[in-house]
Amino acid sequence: EAGVTQSPTHLIKTRGQQATLRCSPISGHTSVYWYQQALGLGLQFLLWYDEGEERNRGNFPPRFSGRQFPNYSSELNVNALELEDSALYLCASSRTLEAFFGQGTRLTVV
Amino acid sequence: GIQVEQSPPDLILQEGANSTLRCNFSDSVNNLQWFHQNPWGQLINLFYIPSGTKQNGRLSATTVATERYSLLYISSSQTTDSGVYFCAAGGSNYKLTFGKGTLLTVNP
């Protein structure tokens, strides 16, 4: 059974641009979560999607947004990129409470 | 929200030694997970353990929910056990709050 897959693995963007990160959950999982791991800030909750709806949001500005598609895959969009958005972005999926994580997308903003 | 504290922040062991990592959480939880972050950044699931005791090979974990702590035991450590170990706790809102992690270094 395939795990959570994220793409791309690495992404380099210029300040002010937009970034789009993608996540495919484990088959049968309806919930997708996004977390940010920035240097020195630890792992912080960004967004939770379930059955196509945004269920919960962390303490991040509105330029962090996303969506979940009918096949339960998800996109995270970051607009007006800032240097401090450079981080590892981890996606997780779950069917119940236990979350399983993908390998992450490392976003670098220059 | 839930607060999660892990200790110790750093741990250095010789191969073959045993270790105990601790996770304290501030409120009752529906979810308690232990992860090992590999060198490429992926979080590898070790245990889903909101209460009770589980074992998987050389690793075991115990969560005492009433006292709001969880312990991860690593026996006969190997160099491949090196890395960062995270505890994460969640309540009814399905959001996981992570501790700052324990950086384990196992020397040959």
What oligomeric arrangement do these chains adopt? heterodimer
Average per-residue pLDDT of chain A, rounded, comes to 96
Shape of chain A: globular
User: In total, how many beta strands of chain B?
Assistant: 11
Tell the overall outline of chain B.
globular
Describe the SSE topology.
The complex is a heterodimer of chains A (110) and B (108).
Chain A: E1 5-7, E2 10-13, E3 19-24, E4 31-38, E5 42-50, E6 53-57, E7 64-68, E8 74-78, E9 87-94, E10 100-101, E11 105-109
Parallel strand pairs in A: 2-11
Antiparallel strand pairs in A: 1-3, 3-8, 4-5, 4-9, 5-6, 7-8, 9-10, 9-11
Chain B: E1 4-7, E2 10-14, E3 19-25, E4 31-37, E5 43-48, E6 52-56, E7 59-64, E8 69-74, E9 83-90, E10 96-98, E11 102-107
List keywords for this structure.
heterodimer, A: mainly beta, four-stranded antiparallel beta sheet, 11 strands, 55% strand, globular, B: 108 residues, mainly beta, six-stranded mixed beta sheet, five-stranded antiparallel beta sheet
Describe this structure in words.
The complex is a heterodimer of chains A (110) and B (108). In chain A, a hairpin with a 2-residue loop joins strand 5 and strand 6. Chain A contains no helices and 11 strands. The mean pLDDT of chain A is 96. The relative contact order of chain A is 0.33. Helix content of chain A is 0%, strand content 55%. Chain A is an all-beta fold. With 108 residues, chain B is mostly beta strands. In chain B, the strands form 2 sheets. In chain B, strands 2, 4, 5, 9, 10 and 11 form a 6-stranded mixed beta sheet that branches. In chain B, strands 1-3-8-7-6 form a 5-stranded antiparallel beta sheet, with no helix packed on it. The N and C termini of chain B lie far apart (41 Å). The model of chain B has no long low-confidence stretch (mean pLDDT 95). Chains A and B meet through strand 4, strand 5, strand 9 and strand 10 of A and strand 4, strand 5, strand 9 and strand 10 of B.
